[in-house]
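Dear colleagues,

For the upcoming journal club I promised to circulate an example of a predicted protein-ligand complex. I picked one with magnesium ion because it came up in last month's discussion. The inputs are reproduced below in full, followed by the predicted structure.
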Amino acid sequence: MPKIFKLEQHVADLIAAGEVVQRPASVVKELMENSIDAGAGIVTVEIASGGMTYIRVTDNGSGIAAEDAKTAFLRHATSKLRDAQGLEAIGTLGFRGEALAAIAAVSRIVLQTRQPCADEGVALTLEAGEVLDISPAGCPEGTTIIVRDLFYNTPARLKFMKSDRAEGSAVASVVLKCALSRPDISIRFIKDGKTEYHTPGDSRADSCIYSLLGRDIEAGFMHADISDETVSVSGFITKPAASRGNRSYQFFFVNGRSIRSLLLQSALEQAYKNTLPAGRFPACVLYITIKLSSVDVNVHPAKTEVKFTSDKQVFDGVYYAASGALERTRSIVNAEYDMQGTGAPEKTQSTKHRAQTGKIGPAAGGGFRSMQSDEFRSAYISESSKEYKEPANPLFSLQPDRPDNAPHRDRSVISLDYSKAGSRGMPREALPREAKWADAQSAPLQSTPDFRVIGEALNVYIIVEYQDSVWFIDKHAAHERLHFDALMSGAYEPMSESLIMPVICRFKHEDATLLLENEAFLDTLGFSVESFGEDAVAVRHIPADIDIGDTEYVLSEICAGLGQNGTAEPAGRDNIYKAIACKAAIKAGHASGISELEALAVKVMSGEVSHCPHGRPVAFEISKSTLDKGFKRI
Ligand code: ADP
Ligand code: MG
């Protein structure tokens, strides 16, 4: 007795349908994709009861010929693909020829369609995949498909449906993505008789975003565009101040198809590293265009995932589009200054550094440098080994101001200048960062806008007048960022102080050993430690701008960073530098002299810093018009 039988066709169809049609949202997605593929300029989607009882999709696209109407509902029937070769470069959203068959298998359908060239259209009625009626019909150009009673014949599936409200919002989310994917199509979504979305279809991404995501999101976006011969990325990303608490507003479209992609998400977030605090995420609407043959869309039944021939190419595209846009916001003040006819400012060290190393951002001509494979791997594959590439910052040091203006430090110290050869017996040449620093010092000074420091409020905020605005700068955050950048870029020159009485810091035995083993690294930071029993170290030197009382804390952060990866790895180093920058920065609440305030303001107003290493903004602007509005002058 044979035990293996071929399934009856309609059971096979039901099984296949289950892959494509999981809930009302999947039906809406497939029908909207068909409308888009049909070249429609206007699409209306209407649902009732979360789409469980009623779904209608109407378009003004190419329509279906009467002779093809029945065939469209057969499995593997499509007008979009002819042969295996066609699979290599799919330019339509649909290609599997499965959707109409799958939807029809599990619902009651009415189709009305007319091609623009035809005098009359055709109407088709189906139930559970069976054609009940086909007849000529007078109908407008384009296609309307009505799907009723989804899963009425598959009770097992019906049981898994959520509430109408939940299904309705899943539909709304699908409509939203389809509508965002095509700003050139006017899309209306009606839910239980009420219009939820209506996009203008004027081909403008910003007006499309505004109508779908609302004013707040749209206002928090800035342009991000980049392209080279392999990939083009354009659209919008979040201004750092408008970050979100989750990733639900990250939208990626590849050749017009909305996709989920960890790769693209990482590329975006990598660009925001050290700009956003932990737990905050950028939003984006990014349109990525690549050669059709460079992407495989045939990897997922619902076509929501794709494979790229080169992950790195698209990663680079998104990363550089976003980091370029972020970089531009940082130098916006410079740009304004430039526009006043003062001539092109001299190249800043940061742009010079980038141009030389090619590490960050768009290159001249709108193209961009591709990451090295190892850079890419470390950026994408392992969050913890992402490499930080902020520009070198030669102008960091506020030291010249210190003797007169810095808060007085009441401690017995002898200053050691590391920039002179032979500090603590270590030849200056042996310090690995020397070369970079020398290079940095010869860089031209950054041009600075013409602003006026008004003073300091609350011992925290520097108040600056610049053009038609008043700026508030958080002096601690700004200083912290400068310090951090200097550490990261290797431009940091520790001003070490020798402590007359060594500070004894207690650690676990392993940590004490770790510190002693990494003497050279500690040296670059301005610390020197000696063994002091099993579980303590004696600290002989500390950087001049760290309070003695913070020594143990900073060393314990260094231990944590070293323990994480060792000195060579950037993730641990990031944290070490953040801790040092934070403790070395001028404290909020501590009065500063005017030249110290001015020195900081120069850095911020020239666009060198915009966010502290924890992602908090360093400055914000209140325009005259905002002030005038507040006083009801306008
Ligand atoms: P696919 O989209 O993968 O080709 P479908 O089952 O979704 O498969 O659709 C089958 C065919 O029906 C399509 O290839 C297309 O020719 C036709 N069709 C479906 N919907 C529409 C529509 N709204 N307008 C014009 N033609 C359509
Ligand atoms: Mg389709």
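Two points we might discuss: The chain is about 35% helix and 20% strand. Residues 37 and 92 are 6 Å apart (CA to CA).

See you all on Thursday,
B. R.
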